Amino acid sequence: xxxxxxxxxxxxxxxxxxxxxxxxxxxxxxxxxxxxxxxxxxxxxxxxxxxxxxxxxxxxxxxxxxxxxxxxxxxxxxxxxxxxxxxxxxxxxxxxxxxxxxxxxxxxxxxxxxxxxxxxxxxxxxxxxxxxxxxxxxxxxxxxxxxxxxxxxxxxxxxxxxxxxxxxxxxxxxxxxxxxxxxxxxxxxxxxxxxxxxxxxxxxxxxxxxxxx
Length: 213
Hints:
- 31% of the residues lie in helices and 14% in strands.
- It has helices spanning 18-24, 57-64, 84-97, 109-116, 122-130, 142-149, 159-164, 182-188, and strands spanning 30-38, 43-50, 176-181, 193-198.
- The chain starts with 17 loop residues before the first helix and ends in a 15-residue tail after the last strand.
C-alpha cells in the first residue's frame, strides 16, 4: 500500500485454503487522486486509474476505503444524492412495488426487489443492446422507452416504479481510454501505436473551480 500516492491494498484472504485461493483470488489495484472537495454537498471529486481490469473494481475499492460513489447504492453510495425530490419518489416507488398487482402479488417488498435483481438472460441482453435507439418523445412514450432500455424495469407491470428504485445515474465517468494497437505495430516493424479517447466531464463533476468544457 502507498497511501501518499492514493494506492490502497485490502486483505490477504488468509482464511482461504491454498487451492481455493489460487482458483478464485486475483490481484487488483486502483490508484486514486483527490481533485477537489465540495463542502456544500460534502462530496469529493476523485481521479481514478485502474491498474488492473477487474469487474467493478473502482466501485469496490472506494467502498472499501469508506468513500462510496454517489448514486451507487449497490456499493454503499447514497441513492439520489443531492436530489431530495428524487429520493422521495424512490421511497414511494419502493412501497408501491412491494404490494403491486401482478406475478409478485402477496410478496414482501424485499422479495420483489431481490427477485428483480436476478441476472439478465441472454435474450434480455440481446434485446436491450440491439434496440438502443435514443428516445423520441414524438414517437414513443417514456414508459415504452424504459421497458426497451432497462432490462429489470421491463420485468414489472410498472417499469417507471422499478426505474425509480434504481440509481438515476452513478457518478462514475470514463474520462479517458487508451488502446494500444500492438498487432499493427508489429506488421509495420515500429513501436506500439496508442489511440486515446477523451470525453467531456459530466455536469455533476463541475465544481466551482473546475472548467468542464
